Amino acid sequence: MSRSAEQSLEALFAAAKAARARAYAPYSKFLVGAAIRTPSGAIFAGCNVENAAYPQGACAEAGAISAMVLAGERKIVDIVVVGDGDDLCTPCGGCRQRIREFADADTRVHVAGVEGVRATFTLDELLPHSFGPGHLGK
After folding, report:
1. Of 3, 4, 42, 126, whose CB is crowded by the most CB atoms within 10 A?
2. From the candidates 10, 61, 115, 125, which is the catalytic residue?
3. How far apart are the first and last CA of the chain?
4. Dihedral-angle region of residue 15 (phi above 0 means left; psi in -120 to 50 means alpha; beta otherwise)
5. Can you give 46-99 as a three-state secondary structure string?
6. Residue 50 falls in the annotated catalytic set
7. Residues 32 and 59 sit within 8 Å (Cβ to Cβ)
8. CA dihedral 97, 98, 103, 104 (to 10 degrees)
């Protein structure tokens, strides 16, 4: 990894970690932060937000994607997800599909704990044979 790519990943991790610290998870106590980098170099972050009516919560990745779209951007180059615990906190199935809407098969998904990045996957590794905008003639 080049020095500039390494610095970019460090900035993305820092944004995701800061977002995780702001998560609202009073029920599960499982804090998650996510940060997206777009082709312009802009970084957008989000955190999980739980709700007493459990299905009404929002994942960190969804918040980051919403912030990106609100800013007028439409392409994910990299995403970092920072979660709690010893296990890898990969995006849930719904978020993998949300990421797919704005990403390519080779988009990098970095999975981290609070200490740093633990693993990197391509979106195709996490969501093989995915359904995306191209299937709709877009």
Report:
1. 126
2. 61
3. 33
4. alpha
5. EECECCCCHHHCECHHHHHHHHHHHCCCCCCCEEEEECCCCCCCCCCHHHHHHH
6. no
7. yes
8. 10
pLDDT number for residue 134: 85
Residue 138 has a pLDDT of 61
Taking each helix axis as running N to C, give the angle between helix 93-101 and helix 60-70, from 0 to 180 degrees, rounded to the nearest 10.
Answer: 20
Per-residue pLDDT of 49-72, as tens digits, reads 999 998 899 999 999 999 999 999
Structure tokens at 57: 């919560």
Residues of the chain with pLDDT under 50: none
Helices vs strands, H then E, count in the chain = 4, 5
Integer Cα distance of 9 and 58 in angstroms? 24
Residue 138 to residue 131: CA distance in whole angstroms: 12
Indicate the DSSP class of residue 125: H
